[in-house]
């Protein structure tokens, strides 16, 4: 049996059967219930926030703390010493960078931003025991598929209702008081300038791009769990209704990783499927919209440029000011202040992804240590390098995820809490039994693929 570093102690076979941890079945059921609750809030409560002073905190963060507390109290989560060390090193480096910016009298260095960084990543120091991680992950992914199916249905309904003449309305905004809604996101956005047709965000997502990315994860998990061809079709149509390219970029990255594992036959099938979809779209009015989206990074006012070009240009320009800024950055919260100033000047929303935001605020010192910590959390001991790679792409490139609990929470629930490192396996020697035999050929579902 062949194993790899990214799938330590996990057989690199076509499938990993859904496993039970023997006497831990009751604990597994309790863990699954709590994780399902957290996953529900992660997907459907993205837009809900709690006002804290003059700022906001996504409701997902305190709910994550509540779930972590309950699981720790019941012995369902355990602290990982190596993760704790990584967290302390990364946060110490970021705190030192923030202190250096304060001592250099950088304007408006935000202590709140630094404290939020420290608080957001505390859950990463915990994880499930190896046997529980192996047993629960496939079951949680199945529940994730069900929730994304509901999300896709909501996205299609939102878009189809506009096509039949129902005017667009932000239902959540009409129901939830403004102080409990996340601000600063393009939640309602037309498919093109001047159009009365709005991109679908399934009502509940922060933006159409977030909806697109969650649907992209749905497709990835659907392939890994063999969730059915009808779901794939549904998710693809829902992604098209978002008119957002970030979900497609996520799928492109995941498709490369899937092709590495499943081989040339899968890669050819996927390429033919994508070609068929492109051909069908080319005969619809949507073709001109998607063609414009594909080349929009060349325009300085496009969302592609504001997300993937200008933040990196501005970061590079900022680094040229002085060596101290390169090492320590311009202080916590600088990227947010710069984006706000840019918006006030141009009316355009600048979107700093994780890497340029880290470099701007915490310099090379904070960036290197933090990325080392977070990549280790998502990769080392992962049960699926496809999920790990997809989460890293989502986290570092496609979304501004440094202080976004909706982004970090997805990484926790799909990968980080389920990694099984050699140290974890040695810590629970009595639980590390041989993997269960492969099940007989299923009629509808296959078990989780160890990708």
UniProtKB/TrEMBL annotation:
Lineage, highest ranks first: Bacteria, Bacillati, Actinomycetota, Actinomycetes, Frankiales
Protein name in the entry: O-antigen ligase like membrane protein
Annotated source species: Frankia canadensis
Segments for region (Disordered): 429-451
Biased composition regions of type Pro residues, renumbered to the chain: 432-442
GO molecular function terms attached to this record: ligase activity
Record key words, sorted: Ligase, Membrane, Transmembrane, Transmembrane helix
Transmembrane regions: 30-49, 55-72, 84-103, 109-128, 140-160, 201-224, 236-260, 266-292, 359-379, 391-418
């Amino acid at each position: 049996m062949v194993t790899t570093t990214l799938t330590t102690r996990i057989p690199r076979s076509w499938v990993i059967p859904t496993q039970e941890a023997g006497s831990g079945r009751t604990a597994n059921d309790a863990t699954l219930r709590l994780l399902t609750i957290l996953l529900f809030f992660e997907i459907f409560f993205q837009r809900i926030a709690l006002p804290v002073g003059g700022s906001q905190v996504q409701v997902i963060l305190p709910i994550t703390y509540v779930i972590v507390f309950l699981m720790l109290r019941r012995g369902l989560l355990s602290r990982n010493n190596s993760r704790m060390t990584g967290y302390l090193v990364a946060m110490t480096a970021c705190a030192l960078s923030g202190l250096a910016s304060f001592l250099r009298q950088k304007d408006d260095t935000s202590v709140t931003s630094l404290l939020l960084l420290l608080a957001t990543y505390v859950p990463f120091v915990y994880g499930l025991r190896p046997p529980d991680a192996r047993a629960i992950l496939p079951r949680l992914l199945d529940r994730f598929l069900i929730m994304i199916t509901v999300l896709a249905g909501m996205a299609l309904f939102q878009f189809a209702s506009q096509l039949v003449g129902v005017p667009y309305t932000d239902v959540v905004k009409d129901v939830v008081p403004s102080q409990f809604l996340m601000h600063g996101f393009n939640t309602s956005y037309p498919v093109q300038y001047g159009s009365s047709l709005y991109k679908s965000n399934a009502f509940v997502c922060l933006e159409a791009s977030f909806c697109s990315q969650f649907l992209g994860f749905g497709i990835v998990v659907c392939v890994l769990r063999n969730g059915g061809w009808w779901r794939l079709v549904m998710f693809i149509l829902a992604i098209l209704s978002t008119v957002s390219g970030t979900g497609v970029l996520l799928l492109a990255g995941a498709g490369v990783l899937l092709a590495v594992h499943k081989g040339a036959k899968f890669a050819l099938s996927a390429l033919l499927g994508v070609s068929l979809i492109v051909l069908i779209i080319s005969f619809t009015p949507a073709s001109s919209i998607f063609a414009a989206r594909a080349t929009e990074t060349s325009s300085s006012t496009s969302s592609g440029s504001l997300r993937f070009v200008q933040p990196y240009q501005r970061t590079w320009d900022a680094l040229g000011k002085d060596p101290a800024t390169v090492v320590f950055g311009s202080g916590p919260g600088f990227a947010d202040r710069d984006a706000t100033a840019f918006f006030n000047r141009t009316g355009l929303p600048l979107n700093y992804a994780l890497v340029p935001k880290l470099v701007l605020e915490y310099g090379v010192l904070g960036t290197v240590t933090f990325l080392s910590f977070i990549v280790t959390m998502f990769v080392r001991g992962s049960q699926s390098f496809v999920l790990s790679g997809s989460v890293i792409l989502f986290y570092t490139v496609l979304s501004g995820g440094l202080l976004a609990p909706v982004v970090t929470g997805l990484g926790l629930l799909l990968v980080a809490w389920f990694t099984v490192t050699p140290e974890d396996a040695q810590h629970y020697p009595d639980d590390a039994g041989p993997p269960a035999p492969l099940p007989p050929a299923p009629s509808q579902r296959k078990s989780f693929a160890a990708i």
